[in-house]
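Encoded backbone
================
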Amino acid sequence: MSDHAAGTGTGTGTGTDADTDTDADTNTDEATGTFVAHRNLLFTVAYEMLGSAADAEDVLQETWLRWVKVDLGQVQDRRAYLVRITTRQSLNRLRTMTRRKESYVGPWLPEPLLTAPDVAEDVELAESVSMALMLVLETLAPTERAVFVLREVFGVGYDEIAAAVDKNPATVRQIAHRARLHVDARRPRAAVSARATRAALESFQRAVDTGDLQGFLDVLAPDVVLLTDGGGIKQAAVRPIVGADKAARFIIGTAERNPAELTSALTVVNGNPGLLMRLDGELDGVLAVRVEDGRITGLYFVRNPEKLTRVESETPLTLH
């Protein structure tokens, strides 16, 4: 990870080059240890700001390249400093992604992650990375999203956020208040237990397996919204499908037109129950849901193969 190359020395016998190399090696070793210790946190920060694991990994690489050049002796709080670098790099990436999304074919959904049981057990973390909330965060402007994530999810102080987003603390407070109101108006009204989500998914599974329209109507809310993300690579609806009957008929029709055998398996996606969908045993997509009052109000089906690289092995996430 280090770009450091050992000095060749001049043969003068002064030892200056050797001392410099030793100091540089020590700084790099310390930098590496600190970075590795906080890597999962930094990835979580970047992912929640970007909704893309691939872009989050790029941000971490950019963060490392800047971090290894920092004089650690001048850093009082290394964790905070790393979060600040990650935030700035994420903001830069967010602005690039905004332009990329404008030319994206069909709805853009966050990249799903297979997550470990400890993520699901941490209610606050599981909600913050849920597909439903990540989609709400997509409606925020880049700086609003960064401020909301740092303040509401990670509990970062206003002064530190101000340093990360290049605003004064008073402005950051205003942005945080505005972002919170925006998110609260759009997020699920109440937290739903994993058990309730799993029960709704099992009912949905049975309806998929049987092709029973009434089975779909029983589990889907009347105003359910189905979003399918194929990225122009896999077949998907280019617009949201609204309403239980339309969503159910779309799912049934898609299954009937496909000669391959469709199977599904319960898993944990972004800290919440989800389904891995396979066609003739090959991974075809990931389904996440939003559940309210026992019924599914949001269906999020990611088929774009470029977004399915993180559902075969667990991605560690943390708020600390």
Remarks:
- The CA atoms of residues 122 and 271 lie 8 Å apart.
- The radius of gyration is 23 Å.
- The longest helix spans residues 16-50.
